[in-house]
Amino acid sequence: MESDLLSAKNGRGRLVRLMGCVKNYDWGPPGKESRVARLYACNSGNYVDQEKPYAEFWMGTHDSGPSYVVEGTENGLVNGKGETHKLTLKNWIQNNPSVLGEKVVNKWGTNLPFLFKVLSVAKALSIQAHPDKDLASRLHSELPDVYKDDNHKPEMALALTEFEALCGFISLEELKLIVQTVPEIVELVGTARTEQVLELNEDDGKEKGKLVLQSVFTELMSANKDVVAEVIAKLISRLHVKNQARELTEKEQVVLRLEKQYPADIGVLAAFMLNYVKLNPGEALYLGANEPHAYLYGDCIECMATSDNVVRAGLTPKHRDVKTLCSMLTYRQGFPEILLGTAVNPHVMRYIPPFDEFEVDRCILPEQSTAEFPAIHGPSIFMVVEGEGTLTSSLKEIIHEGDVLFAPANTNITVSTSSGLQLYRTGINSRFFEE
After folding, report:
1. 155 in a labelled binding site
2. Which of 152, 155, 185, 413 has the lowest tally of Cβ within 10 angstroms?
3. How does pLDDT run across 298-317, given as a tens digit for each residue?
């Protein structure tokens, strides 16, 4: 009954304000330094512990971090300051499925297919990968307490600040250089596997290269913890000596940082085998199923299919599943594609990954400017990251930093500002509606 009244009050094309969910993972910066903490405080009105880590701000329908619909007032909506409404977005959508649009409901039912996040990263996240749908279903069936759902989790990270990550395996040429210049890796994987790497050439074909890479990486990640600790101690000592004679490479500097964060962790050595990626604000990185990665530092917008499945194997105090991770990876080599976005109007860039579930728009409005978001056949979530302005559909809403709004399918939206505004929109991939 309550949700029916809310639906009637909002009406077709009306925006619904949401209160998101915060995650206090230990890799987040303390509240006094965390963008996530600031956004969460603005969004919810809740107290922020200045010393506690604030890592992720979630917007969506996933059961591990649901968003809540904020109850209406005289104008149909409320700013959410200090108020908690117990109606989840998931339940509201289930009672009002038309807000998703017919094609979306036919494909994904009444659950939002995307999960929208802001991340603040102070130290490295785990070396991890996300399973494809078949593996996710099996893992969830076997270990439901660890793998929370049966969905895949392709994702995209869009940098808000300079953002650092490890992503995908380095090229064959770089791998050969690593085994020649990092004796600690050779000590753990053995000379036979090292020789296999050095003997590879482009004529051997991708499959042979993948098998050799898988053998080396699996042996490395499976090494005895005590031996790993000894070898990493040698590595750190050697790098400090090298630093007296020459400037360390970027990767060597990253490795030293990782070792301070996660002493004696095999992920410190594994970092040599992964691409080091630095994104500038407005650049994005997408990650398909079964691709290894680890975020290292910075703030980003993250969007993914609605899932929380993560297979971890290094740089983490959490559950590790080395066997599953090493068996599931694609072992694709080479530097990942960086998405720069496509302009859809003078103030909006769109980032379209090769997945149906989502796309992300980045809207940067200077003073005294306006941007249009034409109606689409699926739902959207808007998140205000900086500034203030108005967002107009059937009503004009004043919006500020931290505001989150759900827009039903087939809603025309105009965003305006007098002083400057930065917001992000996520919705179903545009290509899905063109099929």
Report:
1. yes
2. 413
3. 999 999 887 777 888 888 88
